Amino acid sequence: QVQLEESGGGLVQAGGSLRLSCAASRRTIGNLGWFRQAPGKEREFVAVITWNGGTTYYADSVKGRFTISRDNAKNTVYLQMNSLKPEDTAVYYCVASRINYSGSSYLKNKGSYDYWGQGTQVTVSS
């Protein structure tokens, strides 16, 4: 089993930046990514990175502003969030899959992930 623990959330003003980190309890060769859930809304895909960092996918709403990366030596995935907007306010969840699914339809589907972190709150003030 893999346990995921997010950190780096907090309160930031619109236009600011935050970097989220997610440390895995053990090495994973699967995909690592991020979902988020705002109050009253469904949990939505944010970004994912494949096991070797060679492929990334982003939700349209964050393209050009967020960057996902991973350091396999540290069993850690990061989400650099720039130009934050109030609509980015949400609980951000780190996710991991046992299998390195390659299709974008799988990578963006929450059902494709086997492990979920507890979530970290990101609040962007106007």
Description:
The protein is mostly beta strands and 126 residues long. The protein is 3% helix and 45% strand. The longest helix is centred in the C-terminal third of the chain and has 4 residues, at 104-107. The protein is globular.
Question: What would a concise description of this structure say?
Answer:
This protein is mainly beta.
Can you lay out the helices and strands and say which pair or pack?
Layout: E1 4-7, E2 10-13, E3 18-24, E4 32-37, E5 44-49, E6 56-58, E7 66-71, E8 76-81, E9 90-96, H1 104-107, E10 115-116, E11 120-125
Parallel strand pairs: 2-11
Antiparallel strand pairs: 1-3, 3-8, 4-5, 4-9, 5-6, 7-8, 9-10, 9-11
Strand content: over 45%
Q: Which residue ranges are poorly predicted, with pLDDT under 50 across at least 5 consecutive positions? A: none
Task: Report the span from N to C terminus.
Answer: 40 Å
* Percent helix: under 10%
Q: How many helices does DSSP assign?
A: 1
By DSSP, the count of extended strands is 11
Q: Which geometry do the CA atoms define? A: globular
Give the C-alpha Rg.
Answer: 13 Å
Helix and strand element order: EEEEEEEEEHEE
Summed over residues and divided by their number, the pLDDT gives a mean of 93
The description of the largest β-sheet is:
7 strands, mixed
**Structural class determined from secondary elements:** mainly beta
